[in-house]
What we know:
Structural class: mainly alpha
GO molecular function, one term: nucleic acid binding
Distance between the termini: 42 Å
InterPro entries: Integrase_cat-core (IPR001584), RNaseH-like_sf (IPR012337), RNaseH_sf (IPR036397), Transposase_IS3/IS150/IS904 (IPR050900)
Pfam families: rve_3 (PF13683)
Number of helices: 5
Radius of gyration: 17 Å
Protein name: Transposase
Low-confidence stretches: none
Strand content: under 5%
Largest sheet: none
Helix content: 55-70%
Domain Integrase catalytic: 27-90
Oligomer: single chain
Mean pLDDT: 81
Amino acid sequence: MLRPSLEFTQYASSEYRQALQRLEALQSMSRKGECWDNAAIESFFSTLKLELDLQKAQGNRADTRSLVFEWIEVFYNRERCHSSLGYRSPTRFEEYRAALN
Length: 101
């Protein structure tokens, strides 16, 4: 099972906020348990956890990283149809939008 890389306390820590500030990154955060603020990414990670077969990783970090990359870049972006995109993959949807312009 994939775990979030940061627990809420780490996400809210001053050290983490300082790192974001150095990178000039904007932190978006509400109260703990308020997933509605980030519904799109919550949905993405839910899909990732449901569809990705982590048994193939065999507990190896490099294998897991490779599997996640392949799932996102090959399957999710190029092959998986998304109802919100008219049942097209993100790549096909971008091609469709470009053809309209």
